[in-house]
Amino acid sequence: MKKGEFGYESFVLMKQGDRGAEVQFYTYFRRHIRIILMSFPMDTQLRDDIVQETLTKALQSREIFKDTDHLAKWLKRVAINATISYRRSNTSENNKREGYGYLSELIDYAASLEAEHTHLHQRLFKCISDLPLISRRVIILTFWHGRSVHEIARQLNISVNAVVARKCRALKFLRDQMGDPGFG
User: How high does pLDDT run on average in the chain?
Assistant: First the structure.
């Protein structure tokens, strides 16, 4: 605001306690703050509430301003902060209300995944049980016990190449039986 503007004279009189100046100040800045808040999607009632809150803060804090050069910027910042604050509180309330529905959906989804996981395990164990005994032992020692091909070869008393070949054939059999090209 510059000295020749209506807002400046109104603000000076308002700081001196003139009630009419407070009304003029309110009227002058209400329009400007509403224009600033038009860039935020909100209903008219909420916009009016934020304008009211911003101007109330300005009237309560009028003693801190020594000049009016930064008043318009300060009012804009207060209005924007009030909008952000409202959005945060509204979002957290909506999340609390909607959270129970979302949590229920999440639990149902987790249960369906667990059921699918259990079904896949059952199919896998059935396929493993259909493997020849040596190949079954190679798969179990490799994937359940984490043994190396050298350790498996010593334990089963077969060559390392035989372990690798049985492991490759067993994995191909399991992939074919499971019917999932990404399995294994």
Answer: 76
